[in-house]
Amino acid sequence: MKKADLVDVVAQQKNLQRQQVEITIDALIDAIADGLSKGERIDLRGFGAFAVRESAARTGRNPQTGAPIEIAARKVPTFKAGKELRDKVNRPV
C-alpha cells in the first residue's frame, strides 16, 4: 500500500475529504521525523514505537576492488510493533 492508497482508505472510512486526510498524514509523518531527528522516542499506543538506534563506525570492503573503506557512524530509525498490531497481523483470516 502506498501513501496515496492509505489516504484514499482513510478518507473513505472516515467520510472526510481526501485533501484534508493527505494534509493530516503528511503532518503526522513530519512530526514523527522531527521527533526522531531530536532523538526522541515516539510511542503510538496500540500501534508501536519509533526510536533511533546508533550504528557504530566500522570497516567495510569495496565489492569491486576489495579495498577496505571506513563506514561512518550513523543514526538509524527503527520501529517496534506493539502487541495489538502484532495480534491483528497474526489473526486468522
Q: What does this 3D model show about the protein?
A:
- With 93 residues, the chain is α+β, with helices and mostly antiparallel strands.
- It has two domains: 1-38; 41-93, HU Protein, Chain A, CATH 4.10.520.
- 43% of the residues lie in helices and 29% in strands.
- The chain has three helices and five strands, in the order ααβββββα.
- The strands form two sheets. The chain has a three-stranded antiparallel β-sheet with strand order 1-2-5. It has a two-stranded antiparallel ribbon with strand order 3-4.
- β3 and β4 (68-71) form a beta hairpin.
- α1 crosses α2 (18-37).
- The longest helix has 20 residues, at 18-37.
- It starts with a helix and ends with a helix.
Give a quick rundown of the structure.
The chain has 93 residues and is α+β, with helices and mostly antiparallel strands. It contains 3 helices and 5 strands.
List keywords for this structure.
about 90 residues; alpha+beta; HU Protein, Chain A; 2 domains; elongated
Named CATH architecture of the largest domain: Irregular
Question: Would you give the CATH topology of the largest domain?
Answer: HU Protein, Chain A
Count of individual helical segments: 3
Radius of gyration: 19 Å
Low-confidence parts: none
Kindly report the average pLDDT value. Answer: 96
CATH class identity of the largest domain: Few Secondary Structures
Structural class: alpha+beta
Strand order of the largest sheet: 1-2-5
- What summary fits the major beta sheet? 3 strands, antiparallel
Number of domains: 2
CATH superfamily of the largest domain: IHF-like DNA-binding proteins
Elements, N to C (H/E): HHEEEEEH
The tally of beta strands, per DSSP, is 5
Strand portion: 25-35%
Taken from the alpha-carbon principal axes, the silhouette is elongated
Alpha-carbon distance between the termini?
A: 19 Å
State the helicity in percent bands.
40-55%
